[in-house]
Amino acid sequence: MKYGTDKADRTGFTKNLSETGLFIGTNNVFKPGTTIQVEIKFPERTFNMWARVVWAKKVPSQLAHVVECGMGVCFVDPSPEWLEFYDRWRAQFS
Protein backbone atom coordinates (compact mmCIF):
# COMPACT_ATOMS: atom_id res chain seq x y z
CA MET A 1 0.00 0.00 0.00
CA LYS A 2 1.04 3.57 -0.51
CA TYR A 3 0.18 6.74 1.38
CA GLY A 4 1.09 10.43 1.60
CA THR A 5 -0.25 13.89 2.28
CA ASP A 6 -0.53 15.26 -1.27
CA LYS A 7 -0.26 11.97 -3.12
CA ALA A 8 0.34 8.36 -2.17
CA ASP A 9 4.12 8.29 -2.62
CA ARG A 10 5.30 6.47 0.54
CA THR A 11 5.17 2.73 1.05
CA GLY A 12 3.64 1.07 4.10
CA PHE A 13 2.20 -2.28 5.11
CA THR A 14 -1.57 -2.80 5.28
CA LYS A 15 -2.73 -4.38 8.52
CA ASN A 16 -6.14 -4.74 10.18
CA LEU A 17 -8.09 -3.57 7.14
CA SER A 18 -11.78 -2.81 7.68
CA GLU A 19 -14.51 -1.04 5.76
CA THR A 20 -13.86 2.13 7.76
CA GLY A 21 -10.06 2.22 8.05
CA LEU A 22 -6.79 0.37 8.51
CA PHE A 23 -3.48 0.20 10.31
CA ILE A 24 -0.49 1.29 8.24
CA GLY A 25 2.71 -0.41 9.34
CA THR A 26 5.45 2.21 8.95
CA ASN A 27 7.92 4.22 10.99
CA ASN A 28 7.24 7.25 8.79
CA VAL A 29 4.07 8.43 10.54
CA PHE A 30 2.01 11.61 10.44
CA LYS A 31 0.48 13.41 13.42
CA PRO A 32 -3.04 12.48 14.51
CA GLY A 33 -5.57 14.68 12.73
CA THR A 34 -3.58 14.76 9.48
CA THR A 35 -5.56 13.90 6.34
CA ILE A 36 -3.66 11.62 3.97
CA GLN A 37 -4.20 9.90 0.62
CA VAL A 38 -4.08 6.10 0.73
CA GLU A 39 -3.77 3.66 -2.17
CA ILE A 40 -4.78 0.07 -1.50
CA LYS A 41 -4.05 -2.48 -4.24
CA PHE A 42 -5.89 -5.73 -4.70
CA PRO A 43 -5.19 -8.09 -7.60
CA GLU A 44 -8.39 -7.03 -9.34
CA ARG A 45 -8.69 -3.39 -8.28
CA THR A 46 -6.92 -0.39 -6.74
CA PHE A 47 -8.65 2.06 -4.41
CA ASN A 48 -7.50 5.62 -3.72
CA MET A 49 -9.14 7.22 -0.70
CA TRP A 50 -8.63 10.01 1.78
CA ALA A 51 -8.10 8.99 5.39
CA ARG A 52 -7.52 10.78 8.70
CA VAL A 53 -4.77 9.71 11.08
CA VAL A 54 -6.37 8.72 14.39
CA TRP A 55 -3.23 7.65 16.24
CA ALA A 56 0.45 7.17 15.45
CA LYS A 57 3.35 5.35 17.07
CA LYS A 58 6.96 5.87 16.01
CA VAL A 59 9.83 3.94 17.56
CA PRO A 60 13.60 4.32 17.31
CA SER A 61 14.80 2.79 14.04
CA GLN A 62 16.90 0.16 15.83
CA LEU A 63 13.69 -1.15 17.51
CA ALA A 64 11.38 -0.96 14.46
CA HIS A 65 11.86 -4.68 13.73
CA VAL A 66 10.91 -5.59 17.33
CA VAL A 67 8.19 -3.08 18.31
CA GLU A 68 5.22 -2.52 16.02
CA CYS A 69 5.04 1.02 14.74
CA GLY A 70 2.68 2.82 12.41
CA MET A 71 -0.61 4.66 12.40
CA GLY A 72 -4.29 3.92 12.56
CA VAL A 73 -6.37 5.77 9.99
CA CYS A 74 -10.08 6.08 9.31
CA PHE A 75 -11.38 6.60 5.80
CA VAL A 76 -13.00 9.96 5.07
CA ASP A 77 -16.32 9.27 3.37
CA PRO A 78 -15.55 5.83 1.87
CA SER A 79 -17.20 5.31 -1.52
CA PRO A 80 -20.09 2.88 -2.07
CA GLU A 81 -17.76 1.00 -4.47
CA TRP A 82 -15.25 0.47 -1.66
CA LEU A 83 -17.91 -0.68 0.80
CA GLU A 84 -19.35 -3.15 -1.72
CA PHE A 85 -15.91 -4.45 -2.71
CA TYR A 86 -14.83 -4.83 0.92
CA ASP A 87 -17.94 -6.86 1.80
CA ARG A 88 -17.31 -9.23 -1.13
CA TRP A 89 -13.59 -9.48 -0.34
CA ARG A 90 -14.15 -10.15 3.37
CA ALA A 91 -16.79 -12.82 2.58
CA GLN A 92 -14.06 -14.88 0.87
CA PHE A 93 -12.44 -15.45 4.27
CA SER A 94 -15.56 -16.23 6.29
Features:
mainly beta, seven-stranded antiparallel β-sheet, 7 strands
Which helices and strands occur, and which strands form pairs?
Elements: E1 2-4, E2 10-11, E3 13-15, E4 21-25, E5 35-41, E6 46-57, E7 70-75, H1 80-91
Can you walk me through this structure?
This protein has 94 residues and is mainly β. The chain has 1 helix and 7 strands; from the N terminus they run βββββββα. The protein has one helix spanning 80-91, and strands spanning 2-4, 10-11, 13-15, 21-25, 35-41, 46-57, 70-75. A 7-stranded antiparallel beta sheet has the order 2-1-5-6-7-4-3, with no helix packed on it. The longest helix is centred in the last third of the chain and has 12 residues, at 80-91. The two termini are 23 Å apart.
A few lines on this structure:
The protein is mainly beta and 94 residues long. Helix content is 13%, strand content 40%. The two termini are 23 Å apart.
pLDDT < 50 runs, ≥5 residues: none
Q: Look at the helices and sheets and give the structural class.
A: mainly beta
- List the secondary-structure elements in sequence, H or E: EEEEEEEH
Radius of gyration: 13 Å
Give the rounded overall mean pLDDT.
92
Kindly report how far apart the N and C termini lie. 23 Å
- Tally of extended strands? 7
Identify the strand order in the major beta sheet: 2-1-5-6-7-4-3
Shape: globular
